[in-house]
Amino acid sequence: MAKSAAALAEHAGAYLFVSTINVYPGFPALPTDESSPRHGGTADAGPEGGDYGWLKDGCEKAVRRAFPGRVVVLQPGLIVGPHDRARRTTAWLRRAARGGPMAVPGSPDRPLRVIDVRDLAAFGLDLLTGAPKDDAEDYLVPGAPDNGNWGDYLDACVAATAGRAELVYIDDQLFVDHEVEPWTELPLWLPPDPQFAAAWTTSCAKALAAGLHCRPIADSLRDTAAWLFAPGGEQEAFEDYRHFGAWTPFLSAEKEQAILAAHAAKHPQTK
To answer: Is residue 178 within a helix (H) or strand (E), and if so which, with residue range?
Structure first.
């Protein structure tokens, strides 16, 4: 990163660097804003120098060193939108498209923070036209806190896939009891635990004050589904996986049925 930034320094007026919320080691356990402690990564670290957040912090330092006073750093959390290859939103959309009772953890009012990639890009470009004022112009961009919650996200998945799925909200403990792996086997799911306590409460105040606009979750999910289920969409969505080795599959139909059955046994319908 240091070499590429230095090579560009004499040929570009400013540098927009998309970093990550993971440069803050307290996240997701502790409330986080731009003043929170950083990992302390070094600008000249190699790929084996540390973990993801530490290396990203080093990349930020490398860019600031090469472009003093000409840097904007965006630190997003969960990015959504068309052409998303991260196997998170696409996994939920594919499950919703299958229809039938759909086991989901927690309750619909659970908080969630996402940002559409198009809103992230527009915000970065707007900032660049305003010219960075110093080399500490960082913006956490997890998404607006009033942009939608867990229930809004899942409702949007169902609506974007013709409404064939029926959402069944189930206590987190049943997913734990069935050894569902948080975040990977069931994307976006973080069970109640102190280590995840502030996952969805990261401050976005500075970015919002600077003009960040976040579209509703429903719009992002609708447009993502339109891309995913168009000819060639699914192939594009999953073509990157082969470069990263084995991925934990989405919650299997068999395990989902077992969780639904356990839930039904605990909550029999009254006639």
So the answer is: none
The model's pLDDT over 83-111, given as tens digits with 9 standing for 90+, comes to 988 889 999 999 999 999 999 999 999 99
Is residue 167 within 8 Å of 103, Cβ to Cβ?
no
Backbone angles phi, psi at 208, to 5 degrees: -65, -40
Radius of gyration in angstroms for the set of CA atoms belonging to the chain, rounded to a whole number = 20
Q: Which residues fall within 8 angstroms of residue 204, CB to CB, at 6 or more apart?
A: 113, 140, 141, 142, 143, 144, 145, 212
Residue 200's SS3 state is coil
Q: In Å, how far are 161, 163, 202, 216 from 105, measured between CA atoms? A: 20, 19, 22, 22
Q: What is the pLDDT of residues 45-56, one digit of tens each?
A: 777 777 899 999
Tokens representing 56 are 């990203």
For residue 155, count other CB atoms closer than 10 A to its CB. Answer: 19
Q: How many CB atoms lie under 10 A from the CB of residue 87?
A: 20
